[in-house]
Design a protein that fits this description.
151 residues, alpha+beta, 2 domains, four-stranded antiparallel sheet, 4 strands, 50% helix, 14% strand
Length: 151
Amino acid sequence: MVPDIPPFSMDISAGSSRRGSKALNMIIVIGLIALVLVLDLRRRDAEKKLMELSVQVEQQGGNQAQNQEIAKQVVARVRKLYVIPEGIEPTVATIVDVAQLRSRNAFYNKAKNGDHLIVTNDRAILYDPIADKIIDVVPVQIQAPAAEPKK
């Protein structure tokens, strides 16, 4: 005669496969999260490189009329955030090497490559075009070039 198999023996094997299935699902979820994080880091890196390259192209290439139009657009955006008198045309520069500027002046500590420097006759304005925010404003004194001594 065959001994009776207790009915709970089937549940033990089913519970074991459920635990294995849960562990496998957990590994898949963790793997997908890791994949998303890696892809996001690569996207951000590519975006940063694209911004740097576009700033370099803007500085090196382009014609004078195109550069003047970009400067006018930047000044128009800054005028929405800060009062710049209408009678003056400020000088606009795009920051390309912020590390070099930081070594010379603490004004650039909050700046990053791609930001704009707008200089009027009495103010220097640091502007972030991506965040559309003014980072810093400092007074400036523009000195006329010294006359050459007469011989």
